[in-house]
From TrEMBL:
Stretch list, region Disordered: 1-36, 546-583
The keyword Coiled coil is annotated on this UniProt entry: yes
Coiled coil regions in record: 280-311, 376-403
Identification of the protein by name: Uncharacterized protein
Keyword Coiled coil: yes
Domain of life: Eukaryota
Species this protein is from: Darwinula stevensoni
Basic and acidic residues composition-biased segments: 546-570
Keyword field: Coiled coil
C-alpha cells in the first residue's frame, strides 16, 4: 500500500533570490518606460517652446535666423542627448542584468530550467525591443520635426531676401523715375499724372477683383477644412468607440478567464488537500500497523528468549548430573583398578576372580584415558553447541530488531517526505497561481489605463478641433475686418490720388507712397492666407498622425493582452504547465 500511494518527487523549484532578481528587472523596465515617457513629454514641450519662440507671423531677420537655428538646435541636441543618456543608462543596466540572467540560466542544468523562467525572460526581451522601437520612433519624429523647422527657417530667410531684392529694385525704379521727371515739362508731367490716374483706376479694379476672388477662395478652402475637420472628428469618435468596445470586450473576457482559472485552481487545491488527507491517513494507519507488529515481534522474541533460557538451565542441570555420574564412576573404576593392580602384583595370574582373563595394566590405563577423554569431549562439544545456539539466537534477535527499526525509520521518512512533497507541490501551485493572477491583474490595469488614455485622447482631440475652429472663425472675422478697413483706406487713398477730396491735384510722392502701400497690403494679405493654410494643414496632419499612432499602440496592447489571457487559460486548463509540457 505504501509503495502504491507514495507520491512522485517534486519538480525543480526556484529560490526566493531568483524571483527577487526578476522582480527587480521588472521594476527597472517600468522605470525605463517612465523615463521614455518623460523624454517624449520633454520633446513635445521643446517643440511647443520653439513654436512659441519663433511665431510664423513675425518678421525674421535673415542674419538672425541661422544663429537662432544653430543655438536652438544645439540646445535641443544637448538636452535630448542628456535625456537619451539618462534613458539608456537603465536600459543598459537592464540589458546587462538580463544577459547575466541568461548566462546563469545557461550554466544551470536543463532539469532546473522551467517554462516560467523562459516565459518571463522572453517577456523581458520583448519589452526591451518595444522600448528600443519607441525610442527610435521618438528619435525619428524629433529629426523630422527639426528638418521641418529648418525648412521653415530657410523659407522665411528666402522670403526676406526676396522682399529685400524687390524693395531694392523698386527703389532703383523710383530713382530713375524721379531723375526722368526732373527733366520733364509741365505737359509731360500732366500726361504722366493722367497715366498714373489710369493706372490707379486699373489697380483699383484689379485689387477689387483679387479681393473678391481671394475671399471666395478663402471661404471655399475654409469650408473644405471644416468638412475635413468634421470627418476627422467623426472618424476619431468612431475609432474611439470601436476601441472602447473592443477594450470592454477584452476586459470582460479576461475577467471571465480569470474567474474560470481561479475556480479551477480552487478545485485543484481542494482535490490536492483531500488526497493529502487520505495519504496522511493511510500513512498513519500503516505506521500504527508497523508499531503493533513491532510490539508483537518483541513479545515473541522475549518469550523465545525466556524459553531458551529455561531450556539452557535445564540442559546445564542435566549436564551437571551427568558429570557427577561420570566422576563417581571414574572414582569407582580407579579404586577397582588400584585393587586389581595390587592383586596382580601378588599373583602372576592373568585371570580375575571369576576365572576370566584380565587385561594388562597399560591397556586398562589406556581405556581409562579414552573413557575420561570421551566424557570431556562430549561435555565440551555439548557446551559449545549450546553456546553456538545461544549466540545464533541472540544474533537473530538483533537482526530482527534492526530490521524492525529500519522499517519503522523508512516508514517515518516516507511519511515525512510525502508530507513535504505534497506541501511543496501545493505551495508551488499556489505561488504560480498568485503570480499569474497578479500579472493578469497588472495587464488589465494597464489596458484600462491605455483605454482611458485613448478616450481622453479623443476628448482632447475634439477640444482641440473645437478650439481650432473657434480660432479659425475669429481669425477669419479679424481678416475680414482688416480687409474692409484696408479697402476703405484704399478708397480714401484713391480719392486723395484722384483729387476728389481736395482742390489741389495729387503729387507724385503721394502717388508713389500709395502704390507702395497697396503692394505691401497685397503681399501681407497673400502671406497671411498662405500662413493660415500651411499652419492649419500641418496641425491637422500632426493630430491625425498622433491619433493613428495611439490607436495602433492601443490595438497592439489589446492583442497582446488577448494572447496572454489565452495563454493563462491554457495553463490553467493544463494544471499550471504549458501544453507542450503536458504532452
Amino acid at each position: 500500500m505504501l509503495a502504491q500511494s507514495a507520491p512522485q518527487p517534486p519538480g525543480p523549484k526556484f529560490g526566493l533570490g531568483e524571483a527577487r532578481r526578476m522582480d527587480a528587472l521588472e521594476s527597472r523596465l517600468s522605470s525605463t518606460e517612465q523615463s521614455n515617457r518623460a523624454l517624449l513629454e520633454d520633446i513635445m514641450r521643446l517643440q511647443q517652446e520653439m513654436k512659441a519662440r519663433f511665431p510664423p507671423f513675425l518678421p525674421v531677420d535673415p542674419a538672425h535666423v541661422p544663429r537662432s537655428a544653430d543655438s536652438c538646435r544645439a540646445h535641443d541636441d544637448e538636452k535630448c542627448d542628456r535625456h537619451v543618456e539618462t534613458v539608456r543608462q537603465p536600459e543598459h543596466a537592464a540589458g546587462e542584468q538580463v544577459s547575466a540572467e541568461f548566462a546563469k540560466v545557461k550554466m544551470q542544468s536543463r532539469s532546473e530550467v522551467t517554462a516560467v523562467r523562459f516565459d518571463r525572460l522572453s517577456q523581458i526581451q520583448q519589452h526591451l525591443m518595444d522600448l528600443e522601437g519607441k525610442f527610435m520612433m521618438e528619435k525619428n519624429s524629433r529629426e523630422m520635426a527639426e528638418g521641418q523647422l529648418f525648412q521653415r527657417w530657410q523659407q522665411v530667410s528666402n522670403d526676406v531676401s526676396e522682399t529685400r531684392r524687390g524693395r531694392d529694385a523698386q527703389s532703383r525704379q523710383m530713382e530713375l523715375l524721379l531723375r526722368e521727371t526732373s527733366n520733364m515739362s509741365d505737359a509731360e508731367k500732366q500726361k504722366i499724372l493722367m497715366q498714373v490716374s489710369a493706372v490707379t483706376q486699373d489697380l483699383r479694379r484689379t485689387i477689387e477683383m483679387k479681393d473678391t476672388k481671394l475671399r471666395q477662395d478663402t471661404l471655399g478652402r475654409l469650408g473644405a477644412l471644416e468638412l475635413k475637420l468634421v470627418e476627422v472628428q467623426t472618424a476619431s469618435k468612431e475609432s474611439g468607440r470601436l476601441v472602447k468596445e473592443e477594450v470592454d470586450t477584452k476586459l470582460t473576457q479576461a475577467k471571465a478567464y480569470t474567474e474560470e482559472g481561479i475556480q479551477g485552481v480552487r478545485k485543484l487545491v481542494q482535490e490536492e488537500h483531500t488526497q493529502t488527507q487520505s495519504r496522511l491517513k493511510e500513512l498513519s494507519d500503516s505506521q500504527n500497523a508497523l508499531e503493533e507488529g513491532l510490539q508483537q515481534t518483541r513479545h515473541e522474541i522475549a518469550k523465545d528468549i525466556a524459553e531458551e533460557e529455561q531450556e539452557r538451565v535445564k540442559l546445564a542441570r542435566i549436564l551437571d548430573g551427568r558429570i557427577e555420574d561420570v566422576s563417581d564412576r571414574l572414582r569407582i573404576g580407579l579404586l577397582s583398578l588400584q585393587t586389581a593392580i595390587g592383586e596382580g602384583k601378588m599373583a602372576n595370574v592373568t585371570k580375575d576372580a571369576d576365572g576370566l582373563p584380565s587385561l594388562p595394566l597399560e591397556e586398562v590405563e589406556k581405556l581409562q584415558r579414552k573413557h575420561v577423554e570421551g566424557v570431556k569431549e562430549t561435555t565440551a562439544r555439548q557446551i559449545a553447541e549450546f553456546e553456538e545456539k545461544i549466540n545464533d539466537l541472540q544474533l537473530r534477535v538483533e537482526q530482527q530488531d534492526e530490521k524492525l527499526q529500519t522499517r519503522v525509520k523508512l516508514a517515518q521518512q516516507k511519511g515525512e517526505e510525502s508530507s513535504t512533497i505534497l506541501g511543496d507541490k501545493l505551495e508551488q501551485k499556489l505561488d504560480s497561481l498568485s503570480f499569474s493572477h497578479e500579472r493578469l491583474k497588472k495587464q488589465v490595469e494597464d489596458l484600462q489605463g491605455d483605454g482611458g488614455g485613448g478616450g481622453r485622447g479623443v476628448v482632447d482631440l475634439r477640444n482641440k478641433v473645437q478650439d481650432m475652429d473657434g480660432r479659425l472663425t475669429k481669425r477669419i472675422e479679424d481678416e475680414s475686418k482688416e480687409r474692409t478697413e484696408e479697402c476703405q483706406q484704399l478708397r480714401q487713398r484713391l480719392a486723395r490720388i484722384t483729387g476728389e477730396d481736395s482742390l489741389e491735384g495729387p503729387s507724385l510722392e503721394k502717388l508713389t507712397r500709395d502704390v507702395e502701400g497697396a503692394q505691401t497690403g497685397m503681399r501681407k494679405l497673400a502671406e497671411a492666407v498662405q500662413v493660415v493654410k500651411t499652419t492649419l494643414g500641418d496641425k491637422i496632419k500632426e493630430e491625425k498622425r498622433i491619433r493613428e499612432q495611439e490607436t495602433s499602440t492601443l490595438r497592439r496592447d489589446v492583442e497582446r493582452l488577448a494572447d496572454r489571457s489565452k495563454d493563462l487559460k491554457e495553463r490553467i486548463k493544463h494544471g499550471g504547465k504549458k501544453p507542450a509540457e503536458t504532452k
